[in-house]
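Now for one protein, fold included:
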Amino acid sequence: MRRALYHPAVRKHFSQLWRFAVCGGTGAMIDLSTTTVLVEYGHLAPQYAYIPSSLLAVLFVFLANKYFTFRNHENRVGGQAFKFAIVYGTAIAFNLLSSWLLLWIGFHYLMAKITSIAIGAIWNYSMSHGFVFKKGEGVDAVVA
């Protein structure tokens, strides 16, 4: 078991997962605080506040994941942004629909948002790691 934990691939994924959680947690805080400000102070209905709050958080998450989580400094930002838009567009659609559904059945607007963010995190990590920020052949170095 100990050998498995020190395997370079396990260490790399654990390190990436930890950084992804930090970035995702920060993105969630941006999302939730923006939603709260728009609802409580901007008097916007939660259904509408979810949209700009999600977009702002996703912009942060793209940059943080590219440069911090996956340490990808390749000059393929356009292609990565396109892939990211596909992955996170799906995630945002799910997030909005599930948030609206949970709000409709009686969840508090922040609990609806938190639940939707948590469910989407698994999709976001797996697709970001294996599709969006996957480095070119021979470029992927093991992170120590």
